[in-house]
């Protein structure tokens, strides 16, 4: 894959402001948006999508092309790869593919299907990303085939769980750097996560 078509801005570090879970009003005033409102938020003024974009400091969302371009990953300094489309019939990279790079690999055999339960991976992947970002020179690529549904969903869940963002704030944060579109099933799973995190927050329970 030639990288001549890769926009220069794709690899520039974005200027990202930290957002908290309840950025507007008190904790009790926050209300999870409806699925229709979330779909509108995702589809309004969609940001262009390149092969890879930094959506949070040292956290990248990308597609299969960047995942397979080891020279590019090396130039970017990627230390950890989360493959949200792992498996023989998807993007069959794996630890052996990256054996000549100082890269730690985490694979998930997920289907980009509204009926697939991706939520079972929300907390394990969030923990993995958090630990990777805290490691020396940690840079994480989360990818799937196109970098808009499976991988985006996992990154949104990470921002909600570990950065204490609301789902709406997480969507706004990622969309300001990359066009994303979780399928309807994944969006509903994120919506349910937002409801659950909101209840735990109101109870004063430790979210993560």
Automatic annotation (TrEMBL):
<keyword id="KW-0904">Protein phosphatase</keyword>
<feature type="active site" description="Phosphocysteine intermediate">
    <location>
        <position position="144"/>
    </location>
</feature>
<dbReference type="InterPro" id="IPR020405">
    <property type="entry name" value="Atypical_DUSP_subfamA"/>
</dbReference>
<dbReference type="GO" id="GO:0005737">
    <property type="term" value="C:cytoplasm"/>
</dbReference>
<dbReference type="GO" id="GO:0004725">
    <property type="term" value="F:protein tyrosine phosphatase activity"/>
</dbReference>
<dbReference type="GO" id="GO:0008138">
    <property type="term" value="F:protein tyrosine/serine/threonine phosphatase activity"/>
</dbReference>
<feature type="domain" description="Tyrosine-protein phosphatase">
    <location>
        <begin position="51"/>
        <end position="199"/>
    </location>
</feature>
<dbReference type="InterPro" id="IPR029021">
    <property type="entry name" value="Prot-tyrosine_phosphatase-like"/>
</dbReference>
<dbReference type="InterPro" id="IPR020422">
    <property type="entry name" value="TYR_PHOSPHATASE_DUAL_dom"/>
</dbReference>
<dbReference type="InterPro" id="IPR000387">
    <property type="entry name" value="Tyr_Pase_dom"/>
</dbReference>
<dbReference type="GO" id="GO:0043409">
    <property type="term" value="P:negative regulation of MAPK cascade"/>
</dbReference>
<comment type="similarity">
    <text>Belongs to the protein-tyrosine phosphatase family. Non-receptor class dual specificity subfamily.</text>
</comment>
<protein>
    <recommendedName>
        <fullName>Dual specificity protein phosphatase</fullName>
        <ecNumber>3.1.3.16</ecNumber>
        <ecNumber>3.1.3.48</ecNumber>
    </recommendedName>
</protein>
<dbReference type="InterPro" id="IPR016130">
    <property type="entry name" value="Tyr_Pase_AS"/>
</dbReference>
<keyword id="KW-0963">Cytoplasm</keyword>
<dbReference type="GO" id="GO:0004722">
    <property type="term" value="F:protein serine/threonine phosphatase activity"/>
</dbReference>
<feature type="domain" description="Tyrosine specific protein phosphatases">
    <location>
        <begin position="120"/>
        <end position="178"/>
    </location>
</feature>
<dbReference type="InterPro" id="IPR000340">
    <property type="entry name" value="Dual-sp_phosphatase_cat-dom"/>
</dbReference>
<dbReference type="Pfam" id="PF00782">
    <property type="entry name" value="DSPc"/>
</dbReference>
<dbReference type="GO" id="GO:0033549">
    <property type="term" value="F:MAP kinase phosphatase activity"/>
</dbReference>
<comment type="function">
    <text>Dual specificity phosphatase able to dephosphorylate phosphotyrosine, phosphoserine and phosphothreonine residues, with a preference for phosphotyrosine as a substrate.</text>
</comment>
<keyword id="KW-0378">Hydrolase</keyword>
């Amino acid at each position: 894959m030639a990288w001549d078509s890769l926009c220069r801005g794709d690899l520039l570090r974005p200027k990202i402001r930290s957002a908290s879970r309840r950025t507007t009003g008190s904790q009790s005033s926050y209300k999870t948006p409806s699925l229709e409102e979330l779909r509108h938020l995702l589809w309004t003024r969609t940001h262009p999508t390149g092969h890879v974009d930094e959506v949070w400091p040292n956290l990248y969302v990308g597609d299969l092309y960047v995942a397979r371009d080891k020279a590019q990953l090396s130039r970017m300094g990627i230390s950890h790869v989360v493959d949200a489309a792992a498996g023989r019939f998807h993007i069959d990279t794996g630890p052996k593919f990256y054996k000549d790079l100082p890269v730690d690999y985490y694979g998930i055999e997920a289907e980009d299907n509204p009926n697939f339960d991706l939520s079972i991976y929300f907390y394990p992947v969030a923990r993995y990303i958090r630990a990777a970002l805290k490691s020396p020179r940690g840079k994480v690529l989360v990818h799937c085939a196109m970098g808009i549904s499976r991988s985006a969903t996992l990154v949104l869940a990470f921002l909600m769980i570990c950065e204490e963002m609301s789902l709406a704030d997480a969507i706004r944060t990622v969309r300001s750097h990359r066009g994303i579109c979780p399928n309807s099933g994944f969006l509903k799973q994120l919506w349910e996560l937002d409801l659950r995190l909101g209840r735990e927050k109101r109870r004063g329970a430790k979210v993560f």
